[in-house]
């Protein structure tokens, strides 16, 4: 007998659990009254998750962001590099109004996300601080300190995961051009500002299923599952073009930077090493051809 659940929409509407659905671009598509109340969201308002978090930060409402030492943008880059990457995850979080919520995020194959938040304030608080410290330590071990995005260790785990599960797609290495000269001309702080700017700009363009992180000084890795190499090239070139008008060094408003990109498709029999080495060669070729371009190999 087919299952019919005529009361499901009204039950979801009425429950005190916060329920929301985000699409593959991370825009809110549905939120029940409990979610809207917890996040201080007006009816008929459908912001992206980034807009929602930024508003909450500016108005001290909704999610209580404690682990950012006052640097919201860095927290956002870090949160974005983990958000929606796993089919399922659960974590504890607190709200500005003092409530604690157990959040689960379920992501389907198309990148749509179901958010369910259950209030746990009255449950035993014992060990909450310890669990929170553990989460912060785990995040730190996966995060690049300067830029806040995923670090080499995390990216290598994700690449291993792609290879061992035979996930099709592409791998790209992005390397900022003439970075040594940037350091020489504007100092280490100027170079750092470029790295942070680059990580944020690219991090905001990453699709739900993709991974992006810093794997070396001025070297970044982009993992793109389920995409043909031509489409990966177009996507990364679009990102590359958005960087052309970035001016990350305040004292030098005329300063611009570019990036060279090496892209390769995953092939049968590839190992993480063979993939990285091919992407590296493609990036080297992009440099050799004059930089500020992408090369597929
Ligand atoms: N500011 C800053 N510089 C870094 C960091 N990590 C590495 N570097 C510097 O990045 C520079 C990388 O220079 P190279 O590998 O010679 O490459 P490049 O100058 O970018 O030249 P091409 O890649 O050929 O365009 C070195 O001078 C490193 O010291 C960092 O975290 N911050």
From TrEMBL:
- Looking at the record, the residues that make up the GGDEF domain are 167-297
GO MF terms, alphabetically ordered: diguanylate cyclase activity
From what superkingdom does this record's organism come? Bacteria
- Record-listed E.C. numbers: 2.7.7.65
InterPro entries in UniProt: Diguanylate_Cyclase, GGDEF_dom, Nucleotide_cyclase, Rev_trsase/Diguanyl_cyclase
The protein's matches in Pfam families, at most eight in alphabetical order, are given as: GGDEF (PF00990)
Task: Name the PANTHER family on file.
Answer: DIGUANYLATE CYCLASE DGCM-RELATED (PTHR45138:SF9), REGULATORY COMPONENTS OF SENSORY TRANSDUCTION SYSTEM (PTHR45138)
Tell me which NCBIfam families the record gives. Answer: GGDEF
Q: What is this protein called?
A: diguanylate cyclase
């Amino acid at each position: 007998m087919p299952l019919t659940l005529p009361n499901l929409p009204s039950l979801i509407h009425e429950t005190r659990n916060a329920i929301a659905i985000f699409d593959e671009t991370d825009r809110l598509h549905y939120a029940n009254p409990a979610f809207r109340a917890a996040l201080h969201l007006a009816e008929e308002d459908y912001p992206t998750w980034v807009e929602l978090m930024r508003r909450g930060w500016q108005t001290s409402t909704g999610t209580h962001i404690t682990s950012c030492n006052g640097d919201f943008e860095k927290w956002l880059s870090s949160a974005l590099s983990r958000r929606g990457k796993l089919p399922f995850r659960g974590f504890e979080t607190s709200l500005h109004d003092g409530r604690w919520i157990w959040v689960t995020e379920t992501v389907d194959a198309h990148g749509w996300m179901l958010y369910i938040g259950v209030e746990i304030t009255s449950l035993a608080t014992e060990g909450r601080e310890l669990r929170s410290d553990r989460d912060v330590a785990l995040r730190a071990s996966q995060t690049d300190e300067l830029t806040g995005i995923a670090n080499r260790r995390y990216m290598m785990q994700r690449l291993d995961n792609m290879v061992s599960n035979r996930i099709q797609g592409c791998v790209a290495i992005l390397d900022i051009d003439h970075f040594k000269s940037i350091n020489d001309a504007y100092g280490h702080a100027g170079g750092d500002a470029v790295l942070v700017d680059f990580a944020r700009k690219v991090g905001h363009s990453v699709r739900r299923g993709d991974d992006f992180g810093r794997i070396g000084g001025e070297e970044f890795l982009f993992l793109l599952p389920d995409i043909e190499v031509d489409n990966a090239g177009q996507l990364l070139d679009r990102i590359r073009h958005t960087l052309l008008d970035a001016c990350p060094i305040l004292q030098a408003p005329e300063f611009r930077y570019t990036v060279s990109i090496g892209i390769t498709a995953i092939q049968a029999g590839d190992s993480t090493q063979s993939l990285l080495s091919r992407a590296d060669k493609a990036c080297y070729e992009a440099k050799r051809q004059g930089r500020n371009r992408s090369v597929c190999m």
